[in-house]
Specification:
Radius of gyration of chain A: 14 Å
Number of strands of chain A: 7
Low-confidence stretches of chain A: 1-16
Shape of chain B: globular
Strand content of chain A: 15-25%
Order of helices and strands of chain A: HEEEHEHEHEHEH
Radius of gyration of chain B: 19 Å
Number of domains of chain A: 1
CATH class of chain A: Alpha Beta
Oligomer: heterodimer
Largest sheet of chain B: 7 strands, mixed
Number of strands of chain B: 10
CATH architecture of chain A: 3-Layer(aba) Sandwich
Mean pLDDT of chain B: 94
Helix content of chain B: 40-55%
Number of helices of chain B: 12
Low-confidence stretches of chain B: none
CATH class of the largest domain in chain B: Alpha Beta
Structural class of chain A: alpha/beta
Shape of chain A: globular
Mean pLDDT of chain A: 87
CATH topology of the largest domain in chain B: Rossmann fold
């Protein structure tokens, strides 16, 4: 379990600019290809990456270990991103992870809806490494 | 493209734009000039070059120069620069100017992302800034004036909430809204040209421009910037751009990468 105390300790032990323990990111997307592409970019930013194929899998993962940042698709089978986000925020420690929605939904109303539901930022697909890096920077993850 | 064509291109870029076209960019130059040649009705880039050397038409010359300038930019590029501007400089300058609008110049604005980012910073801080954004490239300026960016462009550097606050979605584009537009004025300018009027700015942004210039042209450009800057004003270059011996007009501010103020020499010359 990673609680707030452990996380504080992690960031104290720094080697240059990089924490000694890698930072963690959970990528939630039903597309294996998107997960693979995103993983490569996020690992490049120095994160340890885990994957989940839908909201339900992601919620089970978070009940065990809270990642620092979650890249979250909206439309997925079993449990969609919005439902996952609402449930995550009710879990102990669930307010901690930064949530980056990452979806093909690009209508302004839907983006506003995601932000008001508690997402920290929003990535419209398609994206590339530069976009994802700048989003991580804007939410203070890198 | 023949080596002779490339040599003449190099000279054209250096004399008209002050721009350095290094030999390793020959392939890139050919690639960039292809669409220009097609639009202008030439069979090949070589044919366009031959026509240009035979009869140097200003319009065609500028189209060629524009295509070879580096247009790369994005929103809030080098983020700390924008935070320094909005959180530290603007409040101090606004107080010193007793609430009068702060005059800002985005010199070498390309497609406008820097200018909009500065305007957003000022407006979000509740301060008024008048931003003049200039570039050598008419094509880049057209895009900047349209204020329209693709999903790809808009989210490179902007948070979604900022995007929703300041841009309207029109089909696949995101377009700067009326309030943001009212803060920025775009115009064409060549940084090699000396100022012909007394207009001065409180802050000048000229980032990632000097580094692409011929070393011999840099001092002149920096002198032009210095004359456009009020005595207690600031100049921002890119965070990794250094002046070395290029100019006696500015000195770096310790602890703030890319931030410069007028040197004592420049100030005493003004006095």
């Amino acid at each position: 379990m990673v609680d707030g105390h452990t996380r504080a300790l992690r960031t104290e032990f720094v080697d240059g600019n990089r924490p000694l323990t890698p930072r963690t990111c959970l990528i939630v997307d039903d597309s294996r290809i998107i997960r693979k592409v995103a993983r490569r970019i996020v690992e490049g930013l120095g994160f340890e990456v885990d994957e989940a194929a839908d909201g339900s899998e992601a919620l089970a993962f978070c009940a065990g270990v809270m990642p620092e940042i979650i890249l979250l698709d909206w439309s997925m089978p079993v449990m969609d991103g919005m439902t996952f986000l609402r449930r995550l925020r009710t879990l102990p420690g669930g307010a901690g992870p930064k949530i980056l929605f990452c979806t093909i939904e690009t209508r302004a109303e839907r983006i506003a809806e995601a932000l008001s539901a508690g997402a920290d930022d929003y990535v419209m697909k398609p994206f590339d490494g530069e976009i994802l890096t700048s989003k991580f920077a804007e939410v203070g993850a890198v | 493209m023949s080596p002779e064509d490339f040599d003449r291109l190099q000279t054209l870029m250096a004399t008209r734009a002050g721009s350095r076209l290094t030999r390793d960019r020959m392939k890139l130059a050919e690639h960039r000039l292809g669409p220009v040649a097609r639009r202008e009705g030439f069979e090949t880039v070589e044919a366009m070059m031959a026509a240009l050397w035979a009869k140097p038409v200003a319009r065609l010359g500028w189209l060629v120069i524009e295509a070879l300038l580096n247009p790369e930019t994005w929103f809030r590029r080098d983020r700390p620069t924008f935070d320094t501007f909005a959180r530290e400089l603007l409040p101090v300058l606004s107080a010193a100017r007793q609430g009068a609008p702060i005059k800002v110049w985005s010199a070498g604005c390309s497609t406008g992302q820097e200018a909009w980012s500065l305007a957003i910073g000022a407006l979000d801080a509740g301060l008024t800034a008048e931003i003049v954004a200039t570039d050598l490239s008419q094509r880049a300026l057209e895009k900047a004036r349209s204020g329209a960016y693709t999903g790809f462009e808009i989210q490179r550097g902007l948070k979604a909430s900022t995007m929703l606050d300041w841009f309207d979605q029109v089909e696949d584009n995101w377009i700067a809204n009326a309030r943001l537009r009212s803060a920025v004025h775009f115009a064409r300018a060549n940084l090699l040209d000396a100022s012909k009027d007394e207009h001065r700015f409180d802050v000048i942004f000229c980032r990632h421009v000097i580094c692409d210039m011929e070393p011999a042209r840099r001092a002149g450009v920096l002198d032009n910037l210095e004359r456009r800057l009020v005595d207690d004003g600031c100049l921002f270059l890119g965070p990794d751009e250094q002046l070395a011996n290029d100019s006696l007009a500015f000195r770096p501010v310790a602890g703030r990468k890319g931030l410069f103020v007028k040197s004592p020499a420049a100030l005493s010359r003004a006095a």
